[in-house]
Every structure is written in structure tokens, then in C-alpha cells.
């Protein structure tokens, strides 16, 4: 009992002798928790381009020999492929969406293009070409119906999306940041109070343990644990789960399904699957543009020259069509309703993959930074910043032997 009281008395004496240093431990731990989580979030999205010495850089791998590229920019191809597979496999039917277009309406919007081509390239007066507008409308209407029947061969949604994400690697990051804004803020800010709580434990350990390495090791644990706990809190449990009489509990991201569905659908419809970008893909993709040309030539009674002229002039006249197509396809409400109906297990896959890809790297990075911060704490608490295993120990001088007895 006396020994136990002596331990507490020693700890109390240590605290009184250097109370400022010990109170600084949870404060520094709180900062370490916040900073490591903040850095983890930044490492997910930035830098867009590799920064460092390019001794060894592998495509799709964020960490180089001496440098780093954000996880999302590094894995843009893999992530965008998975995302578009989810969109086309679970959220919308390409055939059904394009089937909403009214061929006669599209033909009416494109009619001026045919008149211009006939007038400029075949020297037919516009007064004459306008008299045959019903004929042009019939051909265009039939062609639009042909497109709707063959839309899978004419529009490669997967390639359209992936090429956009590869061309602008920041675009995918913006989508994830918009959908996971609250979760990313939580990941950063939670490090502050997780770190403070663990820092209090770290301070108590330091008072009772003489080894100064307890601060450095504790710092590593704080950096590791704050990142790990925050990530788990965001996505676990996937389905509502009761713990005894409490709950049900569910990961923070999973509870925001309706809000995320709104953000995702708006971003995707306004920035990715727009009429302009869909038609650009149809007319420039090496595979789909051939299919488009052959289908058009067939509708023009095999006239390759007429089909060539229309394909050449079409991009200059599509601006009249885009507003109608965007409105009629109604991708935003379609994506939103479908995402709201996803199961929790399916919905978890919307955002979690960006963390999973290099989750271990992020957590280890937090542990390393926490360890370095622990060294600072060690210096504050002990006044000695020298690493113990680098410090040369002085040889102990033995006292002189007693004089020999005569």
C-alpha cells in the first residue's frame, strides 16, 4: 500500500515540478491529431501532379521513391471506371434515358443545318431548300430513331466519363469532395478531440513511466489512432446496428444518403454527362464515330459524301440541340432517385473506395507524424531532444577501492 502511495506521490511531485510541460502534452496531441488528419485529407486529393524526385514513379501508385501524388489523381482511371460502372449498372439505363428524346423535336432543331449545307455546298437557293424542310425533317427524325435503337454502339458512356477524368484529374476529386464534404471535415476536425483525449492518457502514462520514449511512442499511437478512428466512424457500421440497448448506430456517410444523392446527381449531370460531352464523345471516339457515320449514310440512301458533310457540320449546329437534350434526358432527377433507393451496402461504395485505396498509407503517415511530434513533446518534458539510441553512454567511473588493511 505504501509503495502504491509512493508511486502516486512521485507522479504528483513530477507534475508540480513541470506542470506546464505535462499540460502541454494533451494540447500538442490535439494538434497532432488534427494536423495528421488534415494532412491525410490533403494527401487524398493533392497534389494533382507528382511532386518530388522522379527516381521511381509508377502510374496508379501515389507514393514514389521520393515524392507523392494525390491518391485520387493517381488512381483516376481505376476509380472513374468503377464509378461509371456503378452509374450505368445501378443508377440509369442508357437506352431508357435516350428513349426520352422526341425525334421530331430534334429534327426541327437540326433542320436549319440541313438547309445551310444544301445551300452552301450544292448551290441550292435557300428559298428552294426551305420548301423541302418536311423531307429533311423526315430523314432526321428517322435517323434519331435509329440512334435510339443503336445507342449502345453509338455512345460509350464508360469511355466518355473516363476520358474526362483522365484529361482533368482534378474533376474526380471535386466530385468526391462535393459528395463527402461533411465527412472530410469530420475526418479533419475529429483528430482534434480524439487527439486531446488520447493526449490526456499519454500525459498520465508519462507521469507514471520514467522512460521518455513513452511520449514518442504515444505520439505515434495518437497519429495512428486518430486517422483510424475517424475513418471507421465515417463508414462503420454500414447498416444500422444496435449495441445492447443503444442505437441503432450507422456510419456518418451512410446517414446522409439523400443529401449525397442530390450532390452527386447535380455534379454528374452538370459536369460529366452533359449533352455537349455526350455528342462530343459520339463524334470523336474512334469506334463510335464510325458507327455514327455508317448509320447516317444508310439513312441518306448510301450517300457517303452527304454523310461526310453532315458529320463535318454537325458540331457547329448542336448548340441549338443541347438545352433540349439536357432537359429531356433528365439525368439529374434520374440519378438522384436511383441513388436514394440504393441499399446501404451499395451506397457505401460511392465514397469509401477513395479512402480504401491507400487507407493503410494514410494511417501510417499519421503514425510517423505523430512520432515526430512525440519527439517534440519529449524535448519539452525532458529538456533533451537527443534520440536515446544515438546518445553515447558515458562509462561509469567506479569508486576507488578501499585502502588495504595492514
Automatic annotation (TrEMBL):
UniProt entry keywords in alphabetical sequence: Membrane, Transmembrane, Transmembrane helix
Transmembrane portions of the chain: 22-41, 191-209, 360-390
Main localization of the protein described in the UniProt heading: membrane
GO CC term (a single one): endomembrane system
Superkingdom of origin: Eukaryota
Subcellular locations according to the entry: Endomembrane system
Record-given protein name: DUF445 domain-containing protein
Taxonomy of the source species: Eukaryota, Sar, Stramenopiles, Ochrophyta, Bolidophyceae
Amino acid at each position: 500500500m505504501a509503495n502504491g502511495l509512493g508511486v502516486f506521490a512521485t507522479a504528483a511531485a513530477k507534475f508540480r515540478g513541470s506542470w506546464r510541460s505535462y499540460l502541454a502534452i494533451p494540447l500538442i496531441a490535439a494538434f497532432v491529431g488534427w494536423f495528421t488528419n488534415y494532412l491525410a485529407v490533403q494527401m487524398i486529393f493533392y497534389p494533382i501532379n507528382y511532386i518530388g524526385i522522379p527516381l521511381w514513379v509508377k502510374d496508379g501508385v501515389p507514393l514514389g521513391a521520393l515524392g507523392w501524388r494525390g491518391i485520387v489523381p493517381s488512381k483516376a482511371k481505376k476509380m472513374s471506371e468503377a464509378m461509371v460502372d456503378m452509374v450505368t449498372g445501378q443508377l440509369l439505363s442508357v437506352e431508357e434515358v435516350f428513349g426520352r428524346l422526341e425525334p421530331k423535336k430534334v429534327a426541327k432543331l437540326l433542320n436549319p443545318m440541313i438547309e445551310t449545307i444544301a445551300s452552301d455546298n450544292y448551290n441550292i437557293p435557300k428559298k428552294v431548300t426551305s420548301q423541302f424542310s418536311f423531307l429533311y425533317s423526315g430523314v432526321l427524325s428517322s435517323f434519331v430513331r435509329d440512334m435510339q435503337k443503336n445507342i449502345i454502339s453509338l455512345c460509350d458512356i464508360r469511355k466518355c466519363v473516363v476520358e474526362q477524368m483522365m484529361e482533368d484529374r482534378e474533376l474526380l476529386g471535386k466530385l468526391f469532395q462535393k459528395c463527402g464534404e461533411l465527412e472530410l471535415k469530420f475526418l479533419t476536425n475529429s483528430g482534434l478531440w480524439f487527439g486531446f483525449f488520447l493526449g490526456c492518457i499519454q500525459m498520465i502514462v508519462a507521469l507514471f513511466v520514467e522512460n521518455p520514449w513513452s511520449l514518442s511512442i504515444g505520439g505515434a499511437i495518437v497519429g495512428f489512432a486518430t486517422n483510424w478512428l475517424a475513418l471507421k466512424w465515417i463508414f462503420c457500421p454500414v447498416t444500422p446496428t444496435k449495441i445492447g440497448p443503444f442505437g441503432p448506430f450507422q456510419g456518418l456517410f451512410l446517414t446522409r444518403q439523400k443529401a449525397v444523392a442530390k450532390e452527386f446527381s447535380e455534379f454528374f449531370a452538370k459536369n460529366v454527362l452533359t449533352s455537349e460531352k455526350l455528342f462530343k464523345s459520339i463524334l470523336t471516339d474512334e469506334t463510335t464515330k464510325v458507327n455514327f457515320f455508317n448509320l447516317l449514310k444508310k439513312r441518306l440512301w448510301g450517300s457517303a459524301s452527304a454523310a461526310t458533310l453532315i458529320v463535318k457540320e454537325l458540331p457547329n449546329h448542336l448548340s441549338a440541340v443541347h438545352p433540349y437534350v439536357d432537359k429531356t434526358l433528365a439525368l439529374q432527377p434520374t440519378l438522384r432517385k436511383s441513388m436514394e433507393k440504393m441499399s446501404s451496402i451499395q451506397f457505401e461504395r460511392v465514397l469509401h473506395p477513395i479512402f480504401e485505396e491507400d487507407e493503410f498509407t494514410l494511417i501510417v503517415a499519421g503514425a510517423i507524424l505523430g512520432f515526430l511530434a512525440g519527439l517534440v513533446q519529449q524535448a519539452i518534458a525532458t529538456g533533451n531532444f537527443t534520440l536515446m539510441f544515438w546518445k553515447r553512454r558515458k562509462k561509469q567511473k567506479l569508486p576507488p577501492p578501499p585502502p588495504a588493511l595492514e
